[in-house]
Amino acid sequence: MLALLLLAQEGLSLGVGILKQRAVDKVTKTFEIKRESERLLKAALEEKVALRGYFLSQNDEFLIQYQLGKHTFHSSFSRLSELLENEPYQQKNLDTIKTFHDQWENQFVQPVLEGSLDAETLLQQGSLDILRETVDSIITYERILLHGQNERLRYLDRLNQFSFMLIGLSIGVIIIGSGLNFVLLRRRVVSPIQHLMKVGHAWKNGQLAVQINHVSEDEMGRLAVILNGMARDIRGRQEKTQQRNQQLEDLISTLSHDLRTPLLANRCALSAIVGEAFGPVSDGLKGLLEEYRDANDNLIKLVETLLDISRYEAGGHILNPEPLNWHTLCDRVVTWVQNSSQCKCSFQVCIKPDLPTVKGDAIEIQRVLQNLVDNAVRLNEPGKQVLIQVTSADPAQVQIAVQDQGPGLKDQEVNRLFYRFSQGAGRQGRAGLGLYLCRQIIEAHGGKIWVESTLGQGATFWFTLPADGAEKHPVLAIAATRLSRQNQYV
Description:
Layout: H1 2-57, H2 60-83, H3 88-114, H4 119-125, H5 129-204, H6 219-274, H7 283-314, E1 321-323, H8 326-340, E2 346-351, E3 359-361, H9 362-379, E4 385-394, E5 397-403, H10 411-416, H11 434-444, E6 448-453, E7 459-466, H12 474-483
Parallel strand pairs: 2-4
Antiparallel strand pairs: 1-3, 4-5, 5-7, 6-7
Helix pairs in contact: 1-2, 1-5, 3-5, 6-7, 7-11, 8-9, 9-11
């Protein structure tokens, strides 16, 4: 509708403008015809006056005045012929003027110039009444045309006013249409998108049960149906994954608990046999039994690790926070590593003075540090150095780093290293639970753990612990751990 109104308004304005310009041109032409007609009549009168003056005084100056009048007459006549070229009625008047003027020159002008005209003939032949009547006829006709053009201009002005009314109507339609369009846009697009954003935030926070309550037959309605279906499918898969993970966790926890008792019994029995509590044992058999005992101890460590992981994941592990002494922790770890393995690496321990006080479970934090140092020693080349660094770039936390000079890690290994059963280069043959347990311990203390590595240039394992008095969120850490279980069995 708006387009039709605009087209009508533009067409009307264009047509009125063209017709008005034509009417103005005709009015201008009418005034010019009137002016030239009056000029022609005046020139004829000047000719007559000049000839009379010459006849009475025989003064040649009157002849000059006559020539000027004659020139003006022919000039006006030529201009009138151009202006009235396409008007047959006026052409007849021009023919009458030309015929009269030619006769007037033959019957009046020539005798005056030759001196053969007497006074009585001068009065008879010098009359210009016919010329005056013809010029009046031309002017009267043009006055009638002028009146018609004026009427036409008034009609065009009314049309122009109607065009302005169309403009106002178009503006009104635009305003009303814009308002309706805004209302419809808000109802059909803005409000559904706002609702979709609200539901999207709920989905982002794990509330997949929230549905998009928008029903319509347009694209937004179909999109809502598709997204609701996707949310239901994802929620179903998540429930199945969580159920499967819970079953696996329960199975691992049960098996670990059931295996621990017989493994401890085996260790006691093997230790008694090796110690010759049941009689002498040959050296060959003793060596074999010692290997069995070491393997049994490794199984016990694995089972205990699985039990600890289960307790951390369930939020049932109780921490005993106390101010941590970093010098004591680092000395214990270095001593333990040197005594428990054939360590061929050197250690450098750098502890920054005036560190903020950190409260944590010393046994658990030592366990984390011990695991990281043990991995660094195993991966380091003989004679290379392992760096243990305790710093604080932020008064609200302490940073601990363990740097080795081993083969380093690939990017895909870095991304999965702290998940359950993940192993990096050089760690094949182990269960892949040590770093995962380290992550559980650090997150339970409200800290973070990560690794920085370049392939072929070693790796640096970092973990942070919040200082005493800094804001801690152990509950959030445990919740984050539970939410990440869906990736633990990949």
